[in-house]
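Friendly challenge for the regulars: who can give me the C-alpha cells for this chain first? No prize, just bragging rights.
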Amino acid sequence: MIRNVYYSVMESPVGPLLIAATEKGLRCVQFHRGKLPEPAPRELAEDELWIESRTHLQPYQEQLNAYFRGELREFTCTLDLIGTPFQKACWEALRRKRHAHRLRRRPGDQRKTSALGRSLVSAASAFKNAI
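First reply, four minutes later:
Bragging rights claimed.
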C-alpha cells in the first residue's frame, strides 16, 4: 500500500524549511536543501508518494509561524515519525523530558550513548528548543 506524504517549503527566520506530514501527523521539519529527504527504509515504512500541498501543511505551518513569533511554546500537532524502535524511544523520552540534558548516562552505557547521539543527529529539527 502506498502512503501519501504531503510536503511544502516555508520561509522562516532560520531559513527555508521543508515540512512534511501524512494523514497520521507531522513527519518532518528540516532545513530545505533543494531536494526531498531520502525515502524511509522499507523495513520502517510503507512505500510513500510525496505530494506538494500547502493546503495539507497549513495547520503545521501556522504553529511553526506562531512559534517563531514567540507566541507558541508547545506544539499540539500529532506526529508520524519514522525510525527504529530505539530512535522512537529516544524521541519519546525527549518529548516527555522536554530537555536532552535530563537523559542521564549510566556506567557501561557508552554504546547506548553513542547510538542516542546518532539518533538525535538524524532527528535534528529546526525548532530543537521546542521539544
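The chain has two domains: 1-82, 83-124. The chain has three helices and four strands. Your move, everyone else.
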